[in-house]
Amino acid sequence: MDIEQKQAELIEYYVKKAESHKGSSLSSVILEATSHPSLFAFSEILAVPNMLELQGTESSAYLDVLRLFAHGTWSDYKSNAGCLPQLVPDQALKLKQLTVLTLAENNKVLPYDQLMHELDVTNVRELEDFLINECMLQTSADLLISIQEKIKWADTMSELDKKHHKEVEDRIDEVKKSLSIKAADNDFRGHEEIYSEPGGVMDYEEDRSRPKRRRHPIS
């Protein structure tokens, strides 16, 4: 199963789960969804009519958390942390991942200093490790290339930093190769399903037609 298909299935799962809950019980659905390691789209869940039931209640802060994950960034959370529930580690990681994706979609270049500021990262090595291990390994091949192209590598580096930078580039190449192999394997399996199962073409096209993310920056 490719990343986009899995994303579409997760969105559908949590939309249905939200539709089956009422009132304060929706807060547990929001916590589960925003903590899920493979879910990166939240606008559809936010659009479920039941979610509006949280507005003006003791659980309204969870609705704000869902809005944050649908449209916001880590900086937005830091600016409003006093009004929001404290994020658990999985949520904090997810919001930082979404922040990188949003920045990559809305900026032609991503300087290191901007990324470090937006993610509360104190040094280049920590930033690069986060980008490789927590962002690029979790995204599609196209988005990986987009992130890599837009990141402006540090201009001034010591010999030790240059060695680490080379290691990072090598790891990026490994990730690209891994994603390419997986994509080729998925395409081959997809063709098998199309020719071996009735209705396979329609199911495949429906899954592929759903975008992985629908995020817009807060105005």
UniProtKB/TrEMBL annotation:
KW Acetylation (keyword) present: no
Keywords, comma-separated and alphabetical: Signalosome
Source superkingdom: Eukaryota
Gene Ontology CC, one term: COP9 signalosome
Region Disordered: start-end pairs: 190-219
Residue stretches of biased makeup (Basic residues): 210-219
The PCI domain, residue ranges: 1-159
Keyword 4Fe-4S: no
Family membership noted in the UniProt record: Belongs to the CSN7/EIF3M family. CSN7 subfamily.
Name of the protein in question: PCI domain-containing protein
Source species: Dillenia turbinata
